[in-house]
Amino acid sequence: MIAIPEEGQEWPALKQALLEAKARDYSWKRGRMAVFFYYLDEALERVQQEAYLTFWTENNLGQRAFPSLARLEGEVVEMGLSLMRAPEGAGGTFTSGGSESIFLAMLAAREKAGVARPNIVIPDTAHLTFDRAGWYLGLEVRRIPTAADRRSDIVAMMAAMDANTVALVGSAPNYPFGGIDRIAELGALAAARGVWLHVDACVGGFLSPFLSRLGVALPDWDFAVPGVTSISADIHKHGMAPKGASLLLLRDAGLKQHHRFESKAWARGLYAAHTAQGTRPGGAVAAAWAVMRHLGQAGYLDCARRIREARSVIAAGIQTIPGLEVLPGEHAILVYRSHDPGLPIGRVATILDGRGWLVSRQQEPDGIHLHLNPLHAEVAEEYLADLRLAVAEARAGAAPEMAAGRAY
Ligand SMILES: Cc1ncc(COP(=O)(O)O)c(C=O)c1O
Questions:
Q1: Rounded Cα–Cα distance for residues 398 and 198 (Å)
Q2: Domain boundary at 274, 295, 316, which?
Q3: Cα gap 224→320, rounded to integer Å
């Protein structure tokens, strides 16, 4: 077992060791993965790093000590609310990521409803974080099959509700396919039943508004839709901030009380938190604030334009490869599969992986999943060239098949 060394080492040697440790990872900076990272350019990278370092050790739990962080967090929340067309009186919380935003939303829905055996009704394309939240929070999770277009089936979701349903969920978009659920219909259903509607825009919150401005026809999904109670939107995804940054936004700031913990039940006195985290990294808030102001709406529009370009080049290229087919979609998520039994997609995946591309294997349909970001526009042709080679080799039967739905 490794122990902390008896004597400390100097930083240059440690830095070298860290760089060597990551040398054999898949290269995100060369666009070799379409999951886990979001990258624009070196200018933004510098803003992310320097802004983070400016507050690298401040603790955002201590907002009396660091009023600066209270102000920065407030401004980040407001920028999110205005982007997502929230009404007067809305509010929100800066969290560590999509999971925490979703957990807090489900906690607040449960606490507000106050029923004995709570359940939530979600489309089966919703992120598994809702199942994790159910497990942590004692909620029964009812996953309802989607309609033929892989978007929420409102009639089936309505049929699955009962007096103990504390929340409905829709994704904007969902992670498996990139489709946006029928949020307007879900909002009407939620309002009619007096139930919380959470929209999971962890992926889309900072991208969909800009895709729409580029003319992509997306259904409405934000606070402009009546009945939407809360939205999760990750700044560390298409908000382009470093990791550890998401927003839970609420139509009514008063709802924050339902995810607030407060107690004096120990010797030290009052402890209160709106988040699952106690200690909160100030650097994450400062970096998110700086990235949003550095990019501005023009910068986000540029990111969306590059993602559109990556999507259209890659999708068009794949469609020209006999045996492959791209699933319909408009967002940053692109799924393709083989419709030719002589071309096992798992074999294509193994060969692509061997050429340095981290492959995300879709479970259903048996395929390959890409979550595109701005950098992919630059490597789209390289990806297609390797894909063509991989398909030719796969047809020759040279490689084993990478299992579908393989773990991250
Ligand atoms: C749609 C969606 N919701 C929630 C999450 C969870 O976010 P995080 O990994 O930041 O906790 C993800 C992550 O990919 C996601 O795609």
A1: 47
A2: 295
A3: 40
Mean pLDDT of all residues in 317-328:
98
pLDDT in tens, 328-372: 998 999 999 999 999 999 999 999 999 999 999 999 999 999 999
Full domain range(s) for residue 357: 296-395
Query: What's the average model confidence in pLDDT over 135-157?
Result: 98
The pLDDT value recorded for residue 298 is 98
Check pocket membership of 73 for ligand 1, CB cut-off 6 A: no
Do 309 and 277 have their domain in common? no
Instruction: Tell me the CATH number at 304.
Output: 3.90.1150.10
Instruction: Please tell me whether residues 117 and 244 are part of one structural domain.
Output: yes
Helix (H, G, I), strand (E, B) or coil at 245: coil
Domain contains 370: yes
| Ligand 1 pocket check for 200: Cβ under 6 Å | yes
Which residue among 152, 202, 238, 240 has the greatest number of ligand 1 atoms within 8 angstroms of its CB, and so is best to mutate?
202
Q: Is the CB of 123 under 6 A from ligand 1?
A: no
Evaluate whether 156 touches 144 at the Cβ level (below 8 Å).
Answer: yes
